[in-house]
Design a protein that fits this description.
Elements lengths: L1 E5 L5 E5 L6 H7 L19 E4 L4 H4 L4 H7 L9 E3 L13 E3 L6
Parallel strand pairs: 1-5
Antiparallel strand pairs: 1-2, 3-4, 3-5
The chain binds FE2/S2 (inorganic) cluster.
Length: about 100
Amino acid sequence: MQITFLSFDGTSYTVDADEGMTAMEAAINNGIDGIEGDCGGNCNCATCHVFVDPKWSEQVGEASPMEEALLASRSDLAENSRLACQIDLVPELDGLVLQMPESQF
Ligand code: FES
C-alpha cells in the first residue's frame, strides 16, 4: 500500500508502507523529514502530528481520548489533526494523504 505525505511547503512524498504498521512508522522507515516520532509511537510526544486530508477523514476516524489530550498540547491543532502513530494502516487506507505541520516542535 502507499501513503502520501505532504510537507508544509506542498512537496509530496509517496511511500510504500506495509499493512499493520502505523503512518508514523511508514514515515520514519522512509526517512520523511517532518515526522519525528520521538516517543516511538507510544502516544506520548505529539511529534508525529499530521493533518488528515479531508477526503480521508471518515476512513481514518476519530482520535482516542488519550490522543486528543496529547493533541491539545499542539499550538497548531486543527479539526483534522491526528497523531500519525495512532493511525493503523489497514487496507482501506491505501492511498491515504497526510499533511505535515510546519514544525513538530
Ligand atoms: Fe510520539 Fe506519536 S510518536 S505521539
